């Protein structure tokens, strides 16, 4: 077995000028950012990981945790994160500590699979599908919320052939209805329309909005209330609409009650913050155990995207066999994002809007270190 020789934390950023900023009901983002992990083994194999967001705290924690990995045998598994969280329980099992660990975990899986000459999905049990159905994550909130700009973004996604779209709501009842109506007009009656409130409502506000959207046949409502409002999620059951959540939930322990209490119909961990591929795989197994759908949140750069593809490729078709009533959805963020579009030497392969599962070693992408140097924010 090979050992880990070097670990480097690399903050990267794609700033957006005021005219191009976009976001959700929670607010607009000034840019897209992440902290990458470049992990190199004693044999010269390089694995890459990605931590959510631009926090300098994530880099500091990756530096701190990475020191203890130098000289360690490369063997990615849940054991490493479990031990870390047990030893660091005073710091909580959520937040930046888990975000930093997620990036290290992804990098270890990438390096380990590359060392063996295998794709990550082969180490997760083997592929159950060779292509993934993507939905367009678009219709973002903008500074002026111009309806023409919003409609144009949806028309672009529809013209590209996406069978489903997710739009941002949570700005108030009238706005929610207007934005949902435009989405249904643009995509037609055959497409699936998901809506995302980003937890910007209280339970009563969310229920009123969902009731007002009923005529638009919503596929799921994402984060109708804040991630910590589990009682509010229970109240959402009265809406009769499928519920999705999990992008701001950490580790299997954070997802345990969300799944076991059947508060959601669709579980959405983010590999770049929930604990990496190792924890996301366990969360997928929990979802299968309680017969809940699994669709990761994917809103980072190309490394997080590739890790999510490898994970989804290995998720069982449960409980379906020959006839699957709905795809295992892959989120396709359509916002401006150089960390998604420029960091890899080539994008993930696609056939139309379907993403083809790579069968090359590791995460299936090759990172362009020249692009990393250009986008890093600490130089």
UniProtKB/TrEMBL annotation:
One of its GO terms (biological process) is carbohydrate catabolic process. SUPFAM superfamilies: Enolase C-terminal domain-like (SSF51604), Enolase N-terminal domain-like (SSF54826). Its cofactor is Mg(2+). Transmembrane segments: none annotated. One of its GO terms (molecular function) is magnesium ion binding. The keyword Metal-binding applies. The keyword Magnesium applies. Keywords: Magnesium, Metal-binding. Residues 146-242 form the Mandelate racemase/muconate lactonizing enzyme C-terminal domain. It comes from the Bacteria. InterPro entries: Enolase-like_C_sf, Enolase-like_N, Enolase_C-like, Mandel_Rmase/mucon_lact_enz_CS, Mandelate_racemase_C, Mandelate_racemase_N_dom, RHMD-like. PANTHER family: ENOLASE SUPERFAMILY, MANDELATE RACEMASE, MITOCHONDRIAL ENOLASE SUPERFAMILY MEMBER 1. This is Enolase. It comes from Mycolicibacterium murale.
């Amino acid at each position: 077995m090979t050992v880990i020789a070097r670990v480097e934390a690399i903050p990267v950023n794609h700033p957006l000028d005021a005219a191009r900023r976009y976001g959700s009901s929670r607010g607009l983002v000034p840019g897209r950012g992440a902290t990458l992990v470049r992990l190199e083994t004693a044999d010269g194999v390089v694995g890459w990981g990605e931590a959510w967001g631009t926090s300098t705290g994530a880099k500091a924690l990756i530096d701190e945790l990475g020191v203890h990995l130098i000289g360690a045998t490369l063997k990615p598994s849940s054991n490493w994160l479990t031990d870390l969280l047990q030893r660091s329980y005073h710091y909580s099992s959520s937040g930046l500590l888990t975000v930093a660990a997620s990036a290290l975990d992804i990098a270890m899986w990438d390096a380990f699979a590359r060392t063996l000459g295998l794709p990550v999905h082969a180490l997760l049990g083997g592929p159950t599908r060779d292509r993934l159905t993507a939905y367009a994550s678009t219709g973002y909130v903008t500074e002026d919320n111009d309806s023409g700009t919003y409609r144009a973004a949806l028309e672009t996604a529809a013209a590209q052939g996406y069978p489903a779209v997710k739009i941002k709501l949570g700005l108030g009842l009238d706005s929610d209805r207007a934005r949902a109506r435009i989405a249904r007009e643009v995509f037609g009656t055959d497409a699936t329309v998901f809506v995302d409130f980003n937890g910007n409502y209280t339970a009563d506000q969310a229920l009123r909005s969902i009731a007002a959207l009923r005529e638009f046949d919503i596929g799921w409502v994402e984060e109708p209330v804040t991630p910590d409002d589990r009682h509010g999620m229970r109240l959402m059951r009265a809406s009769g609409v499928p519920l999705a959540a999990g992008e701001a939930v950490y580790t299997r322990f954070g997802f345990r009650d969300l799944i076991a209490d059947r508060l959601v119909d669709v579980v959405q961990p983010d590999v770049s913050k929930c604990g990496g591929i190792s924890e996301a795989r366990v969360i997928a197994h929990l979802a299968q155990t309680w017969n809940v759908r699994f669709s990761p949140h994917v809103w980072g750069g190309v490394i997080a995207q590739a890790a999510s593809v490898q994970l989804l490729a290995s998720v069982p078709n449960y409980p379906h066999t020959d006839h699957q009533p709905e795809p295992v959805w892959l989120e396709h963020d359509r916002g401006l994002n150089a960390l998604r579009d420029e960091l890899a030497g080539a994008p993930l392969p696609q056939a139309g809007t379907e993403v083809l599962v790579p069968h090359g070693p590791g995460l299936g992408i090759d990172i362009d270190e020249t692009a990393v140097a250009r986008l890093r924010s600490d130089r």
